[in-house]
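ok trying again, last paste got cut off:
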Amino acid sequence: MTSDAGTNTHEKRTEDAPEGSDAPLLHLVFGGRVKDPSTLDFQSLEDIDIVGIFPNYASARHAWQSAAHRTVDDAMTKYVIVHLHRLLDPDHEDG
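nice, full thing came through this time. structure:
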């Protein structure tokens, strides 16, 4: 099972920087084996697979889907998208 932390995975969204702004909205994609597939309690932090940091939601989602697809047969592996821009600037409206 995969997850998109903070965003409904069934919802189609594209988060880009507001018009007139060239600041990227950073997103982190990572994953690994979890203790329980209904949680984000990772078995080993040393074995976390950091896929990367992406400048927008669309590219992060593409990377998340690719990583999740590689591990689709392992129910105990989960990949997530973390909206870093929300952590860095919680007052920012991202549409």
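cool. The longest helix spans residues 57-70. The mean pLDDT is 82.
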